[in-house]
Amino acid sequence: MPSKPGEFGQQRAGGLIHTTITVRGAVQGVGFRPFVYKLATSLGLSGFVRNQGGLVYIEVTGSREKVDEFVSEIRSNPPSLARIDGMEVQYTAVAIPGTSSEEGGELFKTSSPGTALGRFVVVESTDEKASAYQEPFGGPGVPPDSAICSKCQKELSDPRDRRYFYPFINCTECGPRFTIVESAPYDRERTTMKVFPMCHRCRDEYTNPLDRRFHAEPNACPDCGPQVVFEPSEITESPVLGPDEYRADDDWLQKARRVLSHGGVLAVKGIGGFHLACDATNPDAVALLRARKRRPAKPFAIMVKDIDTVRRWFYVSPLEEEILTSRAAPIVILRARENCPVAKNVAPGLMHVGVMLPHSPLHLLLFLSGDGEARELTPEAQPELHEPVPEALVMTSGNRSGEPLVFRNEEARSSLGPLVDGFLMHNREIARPCDDSVVRVVGEKVLFYRRSRGWVPETLEVAGICASGDGEMPRVFAAGAEGKNVFAFLSRGKVLLSQHVGDLYSEEGISRYKFLVRDLASLYKFEPDIIAVDSHPGYEVSKAARELFPDKPVVEVQHHHAHMASVMAEHGLKGRCVGIILDGTGYGADGRVWGGEVLAGDYRCFERLYHLA
Ligand SMILES: [Zn+2]
Ligand SMILES: [Zn+2]
Domain 559-613 - what CATH class? Predict the structure, then answer.
Protein backbone atom coordinates (compact mmCIF):
# COMPACT_ATOMS: atom_id res chain seq x y z
CA MET A 1 0.00 0.00 0.00
CA PRO A 2 1.41 3.41 -0.89
CA SER A 3 2.34 5.52 2.07
CA LYS A 4 3.81 8.88 2.86
CA PRO A 5 7.56 9.21 3.11
CA GLY A 6 8.74 9.09 6.67
CA GLU A 7 6.29 6.54 8.05
CA PHE A 8 8.38 3.46 7.51
CA GLY A 9 11.61 5.06 8.59
CA GLN A 10 10.08 5.96 11.93
CA GLN A 11 8.35 2.68 12.50
CA ARG A 12 11.08 0.29 11.51
CA ALA A 13 14.41 1.88 12.10
CA GLY A 14 17.19 -0.06 10.41
CA GLY A 15 14.78 -1.74 7.97
CA LEU A 16 14.75 -1.43 4.22
CA ILE A 17 12.45 0.71 2.21
CA HIS A 18 11.21 0.02 -1.28
CA THR A 19 10.59 2.94 -3.60
CA THR A 20 9.29 3.42 -7.11
CA ILE A 21 10.29 6.55 -8.98
CA THR A 22 9.11 7.83 -12.33
CA VAL A 23 10.95 10.70 -13.99
CA ARG A 24 9.39 12.80 -16.75
CA GLY A 25 11.09 15.20 -19.17
CA ALA A 26 14.06 14.94 -21.51
CA VAL A 27 15.36 11.80 -19.85
CA GLN A 28 16.00 9.34 -22.67
CA GLY A 29 19.02 9.33 -24.96
CA VAL A 30 20.83 11.61 -22.52
CA GLY A 31 22.70 9.11 -20.33
CA PHE A 32 20.02 9.00 -17.66
CA ARG A 33 20.01 5.25 -17.01
CA PRO A 34 23.82 5.02 -16.60
CA PHE A 35 23.63 7.97 -14.24
CA VAL A 36 20.94 6.22 -12.17
CA TYR A 37 22.91 2.98 -12.26
CA LYS A 38 26.09 4.62 -10.99
CA LEU A 39 24.26 6.49 -8.28
CA ALA A 40 22.33 3.44 -7.05
CA THR A 41 25.44 1.28 -7.07
CA SER A 42 27.49 3.85 -5.19
CA LEU A 43 24.78 4.05 -2.51
CA GLY A 44 24.49 0.26 -2.27
CA LEU A 45 20.85 0.24 -3.40
CA SER A 46 19.31 -2.72 -5.20
CA GLY A 47 16.67 -2.57 -7.90
CA PHE A 48 16.50 -1.59 -11.54
CA VAL A 49 16.00 1.24 -14.00
CA ARG A 50 14.34 1.11 -17.39
CA ASN A 51 12.88 3.37 -20.04
CA GLN A 52 9.13 3.10 -20.03
CA GLY A 53 7.26 5.01 -22.69
CA GLY A 54 8.67 8.49 -22.56
CA LEU A 55 9.61 8.10 -18.89
CA VAL A 56 12.39 6.63 -16.85
CA TYR A 57 11.07 4.13 -14.30
CA ILE A 58 13.14 3.15 -11.27
CA GLU A 59 12.63 0.74 -8.37
CA VAL A 60 15.12 0.77 -5.51
CA THR A 61 15.43 -0.89 -2.14
CA GLY A 62 17.72 0.28 0.63
CA SER A 63 17.86 2.16 3.89
CA ARG A 64 15.65 5.20 4.21
CA GLU A 65 18.64 7.48 4.43
CA LYS A 66 20.25 6.13 1.25
CA VAL A 67 17.00 6.17 -0.69
CA ASP A 68 16.44 9.81 0.27
CA GLU A 69 19.95 10.66 -0.82
CA PHE A 70 19.32 8.83 -4.09
CA VAL A 71 16.12 10.78 -4.79
CA SER A 72 17.64 14.12 -3.93
CA GLU A 73 20.73 13.49 -6.12
CA ILE A 74 18.49 12.68 -9.10
CA ARG A 75 16.62 15.91 -8.54
CA SER A 76 19.62 18.14 -8.06
CA ASN A 77 22.38 16.67 -10.24
CA PRO A 78 20.90 14.97 -13.31
CA PRO A 79 23.09 14.45 -16.43
CA SER A 80 23.87 17.69 -18.22
CA LEU A 81 21.68 16.99 -21.27
CA ALA A 82 18.69 15.88 -19.18
CA ARG A 83 15.76 18.06 -18.20
CA ILE A 84 13.45 16.85 -15.43
CA ASP A 85 9.89 18.10 -15.81
CA GLY A 86 8.47 16.04 -12.97
CA MET A 87 9.24 13.19 -10.61
CA GLU A 88 6.84 10.93 -8.73
CA VAL A 89 8.23 9.06 -5.75
CA GLN A 90 6.24 6.34 -4.00
CA TYR A 91 7.36 4.43 -0.96
CA THR A 92 5.48 1.21 -1.49
CA ALA A 93 6.70 -1.50 0.85
CA VAL A 94 9.20 -2.47 3.48
CA ALA A 95 11.41 -5.51 3.25
CA ILE A 96 13.67 -6.76 5.97
CA PRO A 97 16.33 -9.18 4.83
CA GLY A 98 15.95 -12.64 6.25
CA THR A 99 12.25 -12.24 6.97
CA SER A 100 9.45 -13.27 4.71
CA SER A 101 6.97 -10.54 5.46
CA GLU A 102 4.04 -10.24 3.10
CA GLU A 103 5.22 -6.92 1.77
CA GLY A 104 8.64 -8.32 1.15
CA GLY A 105 7.23 -11.26 -0.75
CA GLU A 106 5.10 -8.98 -2.89
CA LEU A 107 7.99 -6.69 -3.44
CA PHE A 108 10.24 -9.13 -5.18
CA LYS A 109 7.48 -10.56 -7.28
CA THR A 110 6.82 -7.14 -8.81
CA SER A 111 10.47 -6.43 -9.43
CA SER A 112 12.15 -7.13 -12.71
CA PRO A 113 13.56 -10.63 -13.30
CA GLY A 114 17.15 -10.95 -12.25
CA THR A 115 16.86 -8.28 -9.59
CA ALA A 116 17.74 -9.37 -6.12
CA LEU A 117 18.84 -7.63 -3.00
CA GLY A 118 22.24 -6.03 -3.32
CA ARG A 119 22.18 -5.73 -7.09
CA PHE A 120 21.09 -2.93 -9.36
CA VAL A 121 20.53 -3.49 -13.07
CA VAL A 122 19.67 -1.57 -16.22
CA VAL A 123 16.74 -3.29 -17.90
CA GLU A 124 16.35 -3.12 -21.67
CA SER A 125 12.77 -2.75 -22.77
CA THR A 126 12.79 -1.99 -26.45
CA ASP A 127 9.15 -2.97 -26.97
CA GLU A 128 7.96 -0.37 -24.54
CA LYS A 129 10.37 2.12 -26.03
CA ALA A 130 8.96 1.55 -29.50
CA SER A 131 5.33 1.75 -28.42
CA ALA A 132 5.95 5.21 -26.99
CA TYR A 133 6.28 6.47 -30.55
CA GLN A 134 2.87 5.40 -31.73
CA GLU A 135 1.48 8.84 -30.88
CA PRO A 136 3.14 11.96 -32.29
CA PHE A 137 5.17 13.61 -29.51
CA GLY A 138 4.01 10.90 -27.09
CA GLY A 139 7.48 9.43 -26.73
CA PRO A 140 10.72 11.00 -25.62
CA GLY A 141 11.38 12.07 -29.19
CA VAL A 142 14.78 12.53 -30.72
CA PRO A 143 17.33 14.71 -28.93
CA PRO A 144 18.89 17.73 -30.68
CA ASP A 145 22.52 17.62 -31.81
CA SER A 146 24.91 18.62 -29.08
CA ALA A 147 28.30 20.35 -29.31
CA ILE A 148 31.41 18.43 -28.25
CA CYS A 149 31.63 18.23 -24.43
CA SER A 150 34.67 19.18 -22.37
CA LYS A 151 35.58 15.55 -21.60
CA CYS A 152 35.64 14.64 -25.29
CA GLN A 153 37.60 17.82 -26.07
CA LYS A 154 40.21 16.72 -23.58
CA GLU A 155 40.51 13.25 -25.09
CA LEU A 156 40.61 14.70 -28.59
CA SER A 157 43.74 16.67 -27.76
CA ASP A 158 45.43 14.03 -25.60
CA PRO A 159 48.12 12.19 -27.64
CA ARG A 160 47.82 9.17 -25.33
CA ASP A 161 44.10 8.75 -25.88
CA ARG A 162 42.90 6.25 -28.45
CA ARG A 163 40.65 8.91 -29.92
CA TYR A 164 43.40 11.53 -30.19
CA PHE A 165 42.48 13.74 -33.17
CA TYR A 166 39.59 11.44 -34.06
CA PRO A 167 36.99 13.71 -35.74
CA PHE A 168 33.96 11.63 -34.68
CA ILE A 169 34.58 11.40 -30.94
CA ASN A 170 31.36 11.65 -28.89
CA CYS A 171 29.73 10.36 -25.71
CA THR A 172 26.32 10.30 -24.01
CA GLU A 173 26.73 14.01 -23.31
CA CYS A 174 27.61 15.14 -26.80
CA GLY A 175 27.54 14.39 -30.49
CA PRO A 176 25.10 14.25 -33.38
CA ARG A 177 21.54 13.07 -32.67
CA PHE A 178 18.77 14.64 -34.79
CA THR A 179 20.95 14.68 -37.91
CA ILE A 180 21.84 10.96 -37.79
CA VAL A 181 18.48 9.44 -36.81
CA GLU A 182 16.72 7.65 -39.64
CA SER A 183 13.66 6.52 -37.72
CA ALA A 184 12.43 6.46 -34.13
CA PRO A 185 13.08 5.23 -31.51
CA TYR A 186 16.60 6.60 -31.23
CA ASP A 187 18.84 3.50 -31.30
CA ARG A 188 22.06 2.85 -33.16
CA GLU A 189 20.40 0.47 -35.67
CA ARG A 190 18.13 3.30 -36.74
CA THR A 191 20.87 5.88 -37.25
CA THR A 192 23.32 6.47 -40.09
CA MET A 193 25.92 4.89 -37.75
CA LYS A 194 24.40 1.45 -38.34
CA VAL A 195 26.89 0.75 -41.15
CA PHE A 196 29.82 0.95 -38.71
CA PRO A 197 29.89 -2.18 -36.53
CA MET A 198 31.58 -1.30 -33.25
CA CYS A 199 34.99 -2.79 -32.48
CA HIS A 200 35.20 -4.73 -29.22
CA ARG A 201 36.56 -1.76 -27.26
CA CYS A 202 33.75 0.52 -28.42
CA ARG A 203 31.23 -2.27 -27.82
CA ASP A 204 32.55 -2.67 -24.25
CA GLU A 205 32.04 1.04 -23.60
CA TYR A 206 28.60 0.96 -25.18
CA THR A 207 27.39 -1.94 -23.05
CA ASN A 208 28.99 -0.94 -19.74
CA PRO A 209 26.56 1.06 -17.57
CA LEU A 210 29.51 2.59 -15.74
CA ASP A 211 31.09 3.94 -18.90
CA ARG A 212 30.30 7.45 -20.10
CA ARG A 213 29.70 5.98 -23.56
CA PHE A 214 27.03 3.54 -22.35
CA HIS A 215 24.42 3.64 -25.11
CA ALA A 216 26.07 6.62 -26.79
CA GLU A 217 24.45 5.69 -30.11
CA PRO A 218 27.07 7.32 -32.41
CA ASN A 219 29.97 5.80 -30.41
CA ALA A 220 33.00 5.14 -32.64
CA CYS A 221 36.79 5.18 -32.76
CA PRO A 222 39.49 5.32 -35.46
CA ASP A 223 39.41 1.51 -35.72
CA CYS A 224 35.71 1.07 -36.38
CA GLY A 225 34.08 4.41 -37.13
CA PRO A 226 33.74 6.91 -39.98
CA GLN A 227 36.79 8.49 -41.60
CA VAL A 228 37.60 11.89 -43.08
CA VAL A 229 39.35 12.39 -46.39
CA PHE A 230 40.59 15.49 -48.16
CA GLU A 231 39.49 15.73 -51.79
CA PRO A 232 40.68 18.52 -54.08
CA SER A 233 37.81 19.87 -56.13
CA GLU A 234 38.06 18.74 -59.73
CA ILE A 235 35.81 21.38 -61.21
CA THR A 236 37.08 24.67 -59.76
CA GLU A 237 38.18 26.89 -62.61
CA SER A 238 41.22 28.43 -60.95
CA PRO A 239 42.13 26.65 -57.73
CA VAL A 240 44.56 28.38 -55.37
CA LEU A 241 46.72 25.24 -55.37
CA GLY A 242 47.53 22.97 -58.27
CA PRO A 243 47.50 19.17 -57.84
CA ASP A 244 51.30 19.09 -57.34
CA GLU A 245 51.27 21.78 -54.71
CA TYR A 246 50.11 19.46 -51.92
CA ARG A 247 52.64 17.38 -49.99
CA ALA A 248 51.97 13.76 -50.78
CA ASP A 249 52.62 12.58 -47.24
CA ASP A 250 50.38 15.21 -45.61
CA ASP A 251 47.20 13.95 -44.00
CA TRP A 252 43.73 15.39 -44.59
CA LEU A 253 44.15 17.98 -41.87
CA GLN A 254 47.42 19.42 -43.19
CA LYS A 255 46.02 19.54 -46.72
CA ALA A 256 42.92 21.35 -45.52
CA ARG A 257 45.02 23.85 -43.59
CA ARG A 258 47.20 24.36 -46.66
CA VAL A 259 44.14 25.39 -48.68
CA LEU A 260 43.10 27.80 -45.94
CA SER A 261 46.54 29.33 -45.42
CA HIS A 262 46.86 29.92 -49.18
CA GLY A 263 43.62 31.91 -49.23
CA GLY A 264 41.49 29.14 -50.72
CA VAL A 265 37.97 27.98 -49.99
CA LEU A 266 37.28 24.69 -48.28
CA ALA A 267 34.00 22.78 -48.07
CA VAL A 268 33.68 21.10 -44.66
CA LYS A 269 31.06 18.44 -44.03
CA GLY A 270 29.68 19.39 -40.64
CA ILE A 271 26.88 18.09 -38.42
CA GLY A 272 23.83 19.20 -40.38
CA GLY A 273 25.34 19.95 -43.78
CA PHE A 274 28.33 21.44 -45.54
CA HIS A 275 30.01 24.71 -44.62
CA LEU A 276 32.12 26.85 -46.91
CA ALA A 277 35.21 27.95 -45.02
CA CYS A 278 38.07 30.36 -45.64
CA ASP A 279 40.50 32.36 -43.51
CA ALA A 280 38.38 35.10 -41.92
CA THR A 281 41.41 37.32 -41.32
CA ASN A 282 42.43 37.29 -44.99
CA PRO A 283 40.40 39.83 -47.05
CA ASP A 284 41.51 38.26 -50.35
CA ALA A 285 40.26 34.85 -49.27
CA VAL A 286 36.93 36.36 -48.23
CA ALA A 287 36.72 38.24 -51.55
CA LEU A 288 37.38 35.00 -53.45
CA LEU A 289 34.59 33.24 -51.56
CA ARG A 290 32.23 36.16 -52.25
CA ALA A 291 33.03 36.12 -55.95
CA ARG A 292 32.62 32.36 -56.29
CA LYS A 293 29.43 32.25 -54.22
CA ARG A 294 28.06 35.34 -56.00
CA ARG A 295 27.28 36.91 -52.68
CA PRO A 296 28.65 40.44 -52.86
CA ALA A 297 27.66 41.93 -49.51
CA LYS A 298 25.52 39.77 -47.20
CA PRO A 299 27.46 39.14 -43.97
CA PHE A 300 29.17 35.79 -43.34
CA ALA A 301 29.27 34.03 -39.99
CA ILE A 302 32.65 33.09 -38.60
CA MET A 303 33.98 30.32 -36.38
CA VAL A 304 36.58 31.45 -33.87
CA LYS A 305 39.22 29.15 -32.39
CA ASP A 306 38.23 29.41 -28.70
CA ILE A 307 36.43 31.55 -26.16
CA ASP A 308 39.62 33.43 -25.18
CA THR A 309 40.04 34.63 -28.75
CA VAL A 310 36.37 35.64 -28.86
CA ARG A 311 36.93 37.73 -25.71
CA ARG A 312 39.95 39.46 -27.21
CA TRP A 313 38.22 40.32 -30.50
CA PHE A 314 34.61 41.01 -29.46
CA TYR A 315 32.57 42.58 -26.69
CA VAL A 316 31.01 39.56 -25.07
CA SER A 317 28.76 39.47 -21.99
CA PRO A 318 28.58 36.55 -19.53
CA LEU A 319 25.24 35.54 -21.04
CA GLU A 320 26.68 35.62 -24.55
CA GLU A 321 29.58 33.46 -23.39
CA GLU A 322 27.18 31.03 -21.82
CA ILE A 323 25.29 30.67 -25.10
CA LEU A 324 28.41 30.41 -27.25
CA THR A 325 29.70 27.56 -25.08
CA SER A 326 26.31 25.87 -24.60
CA ARG A 327 25.52 22.47 -26.05
CA ALA A 328 23.50 24.16 -28.82
CA ALA A 329 26.58 26.27 -29.72
CA PRO A 330 24.75 28.68 -32.04
CA ILE A 331 26.01 31.66 -33.98
CA VAL A 332 25.80 34.67 -31.65
CA ILE A 333 25.77 38.19 -33.09
CA LEU A 334 28.59 40.11 -31.36
CA ARG A 335 30.03 43.60 -31.61
CA ALA A 336 33.63 43.64 -32.81
CA ARG A 337 36.33 45.44 -30.80
CA GLU A 338 38.34 48.14 -32.57
CA ASN A 339 41.38 45.86 -32.85
CA CYS A 340 39.42 42.86 -34.16
CA PRO A 341 41.53 41.31 -36.96
CA VAL A 342 38.55 39.83 -38.82
CA ALA A 343 38.58 41.08 -42.43
CA LYS A 344 36.20 43.98 -43.01
CA ASN A 345 34.56 42.28 -45.99
CA VAL A 346 33.24 39.46 -43.75
CA ALA A 347 30.41 41.78 -42.68
CA PRO A 348 30.74 44.87 -44.90
CA GLY A 349 29.71 48.10 -43.21
CA LEU A 350 28.65 46.37 -39.99
CA MET A 351 30.07 46.55 -36.49
CA HIS A 352 28.50 43.21 -35.62
CA VAL A 353 29.59 39.77 -36.73
CA GLY A 354 27.91 36.37 -36.29
CA VAL A 355 30.35 34.28 -34.23
CA MET A 356 30.34 30.63 -33.20
CA LEU A 357 32.78 28.26 -31.56
CA PRO A 358 33.89 24.94 -33.07
CA HIS A 359 30.97 22.67 -32.16
CA SER A 360 31.97 19.40 -33.80
CA PRO A 361 35.28 17.59 -33.28
CA LEU A 362 36.03 17.94 -37.00
CA HIS A 363 35.67 21.72 -36.82
CA LEU A 364 37.69 21.81 -33.63
CA LEU A 365 40.57 19.91 -35.22
CA LEU A 366 41.03 22.66 -37.81
CA PHE A 367 42.03 24.94 -34.92
CA LEU A 368 44.02 22.54 -32.73
CA SER A 369 47.77 22.61 -32.70
CA GLY A 370 49.22 19.14 -32.99
CA ASP A 371 49.30 16.79 -35.92
CA GLY A 372 47.20 13.86 -34.79
CA GLU A 373 50.10 11.44 -34.55
CA ALA A 374 49.65 9.62 -31.25
CA ARG A 375 52.77 9.78 -29.08
CA GLU A 376 54.05 11.14 -25.80
CA LEU A 377 54.48 14.88 -26.22
CA THR A 378 56.76 16.94 -24.03
CA PRO A 379 56.86 20.74 -24.07
CA GLU A 380 60.23 20.52 -25.85
CA ALA A 381 59.15 17.96 -28.43
CA GLN A 382 56.13 19.52 -30.12
CA PRO A 383 55.23 18.33 -33.61
CA GLU A 384 56.50 20.35 -36.52
CA LEU A 385 53.58 21.65 -38.51
CA HIS A 386 53.89 22.55 -42.17
CA GLU A 387 50.83 24.72 -42.13
CA PRO A 388 49.74 27.50 -39.79
CA VAL A 389 46.75 26.85 -37.54
CA PRO A 390 43.95 29.35 -38.27
CA GLU A 391 42.42 31.57 -35.59
CA ALA A 392 39.11 32.32 -37.29
CA LEU A 393 37.37 30.93 -40.34
CA VAL A 394 34.41 32.14 -42.31
CA MET A 395 31.90 29.32 -41.82
CA THR A 396 28.93 29.93 -44.05
CA SER A 397 26.22 27.52 -45.19
CA GLY A 398 27.35 25.30 -48.05
CA ASN A 399 24.90 26.14 -50.78
CA ARG A 400 24.79 28.02 -54.04
CA SER A 401 23.02 31.35 -54.01
CA GLY A 402 19.27 30.79 -53.62
CA GLU A 403 19.57 27.01 -53.26
CA PRO A 404 19.14 24.82 -50.17
CA LEU A 405 21.93 23.69 -47.83
CA VAL A 406 23.93 20.78 -49.29
CA PHE A 407 24.22 17.74 -47.00
CA ARG A 408 25.11 14.78 -49.24
CA ASN A 409 28.57 13.98 -50.60
CA GLU A 410 27.61 13.52 -54.25
CA GLU A 411 25.57 16.69 -54.32
CA ALA A 412 28.45 18.55 -52.67
CA ARG A 413 30.94 17.47 -55.32
CA SER A 414 28.75 18.64 -58.17
CA SER A 415 27.04 21.66 -56.66
CA LEU A 416 29.79 23.09 -54.44
CA GLY A 417 32.71 21.86 -56.56
CA PRO A 418 32.97 25.08 -58.62
CA LEU A 419 33.03 27.20 -55.44
CA VAL A 420 35.79 25.46 -53.51
CA ASP A 421 39.38 24.30 -53.77
CA GLY A 422 38.88 21.17 -51.73
CA PHE A 423 36.54 19.17 -49.50
CA LEU A 424 36.78 17.69 -46.06
CA MET A 425 34.54 14.77 -46.84
CA HIS A 426 33.49 11.90 -44.62
CA ASN A 427 31.40 8.76 -44.75
CA ARG A 428 28.99 9.34 -41.88
CA GLU A 429 25.77 10.16 -43.70
CA ILE A 430 23.70 13.14 -42.61
CA ALA A 431 20.11 11.91 -42.36
CA ARG A 432 18.61 15.36 -42.73
CA PRO A 433 20.02 18.87 -43.14
CA CYS A 434 19.99 21.25 -40.19
CA ASP A 435 21.48 24.72 -40.50
CA ASP A 436 23.29 26.59 -37.71
CA SER A 437 21.12 28.51 -35.27
CA VAL A 438 21.55 32.27 -34.93
CA VAL A 439 20.76 34.26 -31.78
CA ARG A 440 21.28 37.74 -30.47
CA VAL A 441 21.34 38.84 -26.86
CA VAL A 442 19.45 42.05 -26.12
CA GLY A 443 19.73 43.07 -22.48
CA GLU A 444 19.20 39.82 -20.61
CA LYS A 445 17.03 38.29 -23.33
CA VAL A 446 18.06 35.79 -25.97
CA LEU A 447 16.35 36.46 -29.28
CA PHE A 448 16.26 33.86 -32.00
CA TYR A 449 17.10 34.96 -35.50
CA ARG A 450 17.11 31.34 -36.52
CA ARG A 451 16.17 28.37 -34.32
CA SER A 452 17.72 25.27 -35.83
CA ARG A 453 20.74 23.09 -34.90
CA GLY A 454 20.91 22.46 -31.16
CA TRP A 455 17.22 23.20 -30.52
CA VAL A 456 15.32 21.25 -33.14
CA PRO A 457 13.46 18.89 -32.59
CA GLU A 458 12.62 20.02 -29.04
CA THR A 459 8.91 20.75 -28.73
CA LEU A 460 7.27 23.82 -27.19
CA GLU A 461 4.42 23.44 -24.72
CA VAL A 462 1.40 25.46 -25.78
CA ALA A 463 -1.24 23.47 -23.89
CA GLY A 464 -3.38 25.87 -21.92
CA ILE A 465 -2.11 28.81 -23.94
CA CYS A 466 -3.47 28.42 -27.42
CA ALA A 467 -4.32 24.71 -27.39
CA SER A 468 -6.53 22.81 -25.01
CA GLY A 469 -4.02 19.97 -24.67
CA ASP A 470 -6.74 17.45 -23.85
CA GLY A 471 -5.87 15.26 -26.82
CA GLU A 472 -9.19 16.11 -28.48
CA MET A 473 -8.04 19.07 -30.50
CA PRO A 474 -7.03 18.60 -34.14
CA ARG A 475 -3.50 17.95 -35.26
CA VAL A 476 -2.32 20.89 -37.29
CA PHE A 477 0.34 21.14 -39.96
CA ALA A 478 1.30 24.81 -40.24
CA ALA A 479 2.97 25.25 -43.63
CA GLY A 480 4.87 28.49 -42.97
CA ALA A 481 5.81 31.36 -45.23
CA GLU A 482 7.88 31.55 -48.41
CA GLY A 483 10.80 33.55 -47.04
CA LYS A 484 13.00 31.99 -44.32
CA ASN A 485 10.54 29.14 -44.00
CA VAL A 486 9.98 27.09 -40.87
CA PHE A 487 6.98 24.79 -40.66
CA ALA A 488 5.33 23.31 -37.57
CA PHE A 489 3.33 20.34 -36.32
CA LEU A 490 0.87 20.79 -33.47
CA SER A 491 -0.29 17.76 -31.52
CA ARG A 492 -1.21 17.01 -27.91
CA GLY A 493 -0.65 20.60 -26.82
CA LYS A 494 2.90 20.62 -28.15
CA VAL A 495 4.41 22.35 -31.15
CA LEU A 496 7.28 20.86 -33.08
CA LEU A 497 9.01 23.60 -35.06
CA SER A 498 11.07 22.37 -37.98
CA GLN A 499 14.68 23.28 -38.58
CA HIS A 500 15.36 26.41 -40.64
CA VAL A 501 14.20 25.47 -44.15
CA GLY A 502 15.17 28.75 -45.80
CA ASP A 503 13.82 30.65 -48.77
CA LEU A 504 11.37 28.81 -51.01
CA TYR A 505 11.52 31.02 -54.08
CA SER A 506 13.12 28.34 -56.26
CA GLU A 507 12.08 24.90 -57.44
CA GLU A 508 14.97 23.42 -55.44
CA GLY A 509 13.70 25.23 -52.36
CA ILE A 510 10.21 23.78 -52.73
CA SER A 511 11.48 20.27 -53.31
CA ARG A 512 13.70 20.55 -50.20
CA TYR A 513 10.63 21.76 -48.30
CA LYS A 514 8.63 18.72 -49.35
CA PHE A 515 11.48 16.42 -48.39
CA LEU A 516 11.71 17.94 -44.91
CA VAL A 517 7.96 17.89 -44.24
CA ARG A 518 7.73 14.23 -45.27
CA ASP A 519 10.84 13.44 -43.24
CA LEU A 520 9.65 14.98 -39.96
CA ALA A 521 6.13 13.62 -40.46
CA SER A 522 7.49 10.11 -40.85
CA LEU A 523 9.95 10.47 -37.96
CA TYR A 524 7.08 11.46 -35.67
CA LYS A 525 4.33 9.43 -37.37
CA PHE A 526 2.47 12.68 -37.78
CA GLU A 527 -0.69 12.91 -39.87
CA PRO A 528 -2.49 16.26 -39.71
CA ASP A 529 -6.24 16.77 -39.38
CA ILE A 530 -5.95 20.34 -40.65
CA ILE A 531 -3.47 22.30 -42.75
CA ALA A 532 -2.85 25.97 -41.95
CA VAL A 533 -1.45 28.08 -44.80
CA ASP A 534 -0.74 31.74 -45.47
CA SER A 535 -3.76 33.37 -47.09
CA HIS A 536 -1.60 34.62 -49.98
CA PRO A 537 -3.10 32.93 -53.07
CA GLY A 538 0.21 32.88 -54.95
CA TYR A 539 2.39 31.10 -52.37
CA GLU A 540 4.07 28.05 -53.88
CA VAL A 541 4.63 26.74 -50.36
CA SER A 542 0.88 26.61 -49.69
CA LYS A 543 0.38 24.69 -52.92
CA ALA A 544 3.10 22.26 -51.84
CA ALA A 545 1.45 21.84 -48.43
CA ARG A 546 -1.87 20.92 -50.04
CA GLU A 547 -0.10 18.41 -52.28
CA LEU A 548 1.66 16.80 -49.34
CA PHE A 549 -1.56 16.11 -47.46
CA PRO A 550 -4.33 16.07 -50.07
CA ASP A 551 -7.97 15.99 -48.95
CA LYS A 552 -7.25 17.65 -45.60
CA PRO A 553 -9.24 20.74 -44.66
CA VAL A 554 -7.23 23.92 -45.22
CA VAL A 555 -7.37 26.97 -42.96
CA GLU A 556 -6.00 30.22 -44.36
CA VAL A 557 -4.22 32.49 -41.90
CA GLN A 558 -3.43 36.15 -42.47
CA HIS A 559 0.34 36.69 -42.55
CA HIS A 560 0.67 39.36 -39.84
CA HIS A 561 -1.87 37.69 -37.58
CA ALA A 562 0.25 34.52 -37.76
CA HIS A 563 3.28 36.53 -36.61
CA MET A 564 1.32 38.00 -33.73
CA ALA A 565 -0.10 34.63 -32.64
CA SER A 566 3.32 32.97 -32.66
CA VAL A 567 4.85 35.71 -30.52
CA MET A 568 1.89 35.37 -28.14
CA ALA A 569 2.41 31.60 -27.88
CA GLU A 570 6.17 32.02 -27.42
CA HIS A 571 5.56 34.31 -24.45
CA GLY A 572 2.59 32.43 -23.03
CA LEU A 573 0.10 35.27 -23.57
CA LYS A 574 -3.60 34.49 -23.36
CA GLY A 575 -6.68 36.52 -24.15
CA ARG A 576 -6.78 39.68 -26.22
CA CYS A 577 -3.54 41.38 -27.19
CA VAL A 578 -2.32 44.24 -29.30
CA GLY A 579 0.43 43.33 -31.74
CA ILE A 580 2.74 45.57 -33.76
CA ILE A 581 4.06 43.61 -36.71
CA LEU A 582 6.79 45.25 -38.75
CA ASP A 583 8.10 42.42 -40.88
CA GLY A 584 7.29 43.79 -44.31
CA THR A 585 4.56 42.92 -46.73
CA GLY A 586 1.98 40.18 -46.58
CA TYR A 587 -1.36 39.37 -48.16
CA GLY A 588 -4.08 41.35 -46.35
CA ALA A 589 -7.53 40.20 -45.31
CA ASP A 590 -8.95 42.61 -47.89
CA GLY A 591 -6.90 41.12 -50.71
CA ARG A 592 -4.45 44.04 -50.73
CA VAL A 593 -0.82 44.12 -49.72
CA TRP A 594 -0.36 44.87 -46.02
CA GLY A 595 2.77 45.84 -44.12
CA GLY A 596 3.56 47.55 -40.81
CA GLU A 597 0.43 46.41 -38.99
CA VAL A 598 -1.07 47.19 -35.60
CA LEU A 599 -3.54 44.41 -34.82
CA ALA A 600 -5.76 43.67 -31.83
CA GLY A 601 -7.05 40.18 -31.23
CA ASP A 602 -6.41 36.67 -29.95
CA TYR A 603 -5.44 33.32 -31.45
CA ARG A 604 -8.66 33.02 -33.41
CA CYS A 605 -9.38 36.46 -34.80
CA PHE A 606 -8.14 40.00 -35.03
CA GLU A 607 -9.03 43.48 -36.16
CA ARG A 608 -6.75 45.85 -37.99
CA LEU A 609 -6.35 48.93 -35.80
CA TYR A 610 -3.73 50.88 -37.73
CA HIS A 611 -1.18 50.38 -40.43
CA LEU A 612 1.97 52.22 -41.30
CA ALA A 613 2.20 51.36 -44.97
ZN1 LIG B 1 31.40 14.03 -25.07
ZN1 LIG C 1 35.87 1.33 -32.10
Answer: alpha beta
Residue 497: CA count within 13 A, CB half-sphere: 20
- DSSP conformational letter for 175: B
Alpha carbon distance 48, 147 (integer Å): 31
Cα angle vertex 404, ends 399, 410, to 5°?
A: 65
- Rounded to the nearest angstrom, the distance between the alpha carbon of 400 and the centre of ligand 1 is 33
Ligand nearest to the CA of 219: 2
Which CATH architecture is the domain 458-557 placed in?
Answer: 2-Layer Sandwich (3.30)
- In this structure, what are the phi and psi dihedrals at residue 328, rounded to the nearest 5 degrees? -75, -30
According to DSSP, residue 173 is labeled: T
Question: Whole-angstrom Cα distance, residue 408 to residue 388?
Answer: 29
ipTM: 0.99
Measured in angstroms, how far is the CA atom of residue 498 from the centroid of ligand 1? 25
Q: How many angstroms separate the most distant Cα atoms in the chain?
A: 84
Q: Which residues 6+ apart lie within 8 Å of 546 measured at CB?
A: 531, 533, 554
Distance 197 CA to ligand 2 centre (A): 8
Q: Which CATH class is domain 239-375+385-426?
A: alpha beta
CA–CA dist 352, 476 (Å, integer): 38
| Each residue's pLDDT tens digit, 255-300 | 999 999 999 999 999 999 999 999 999 999 999 999 999 999 999 9
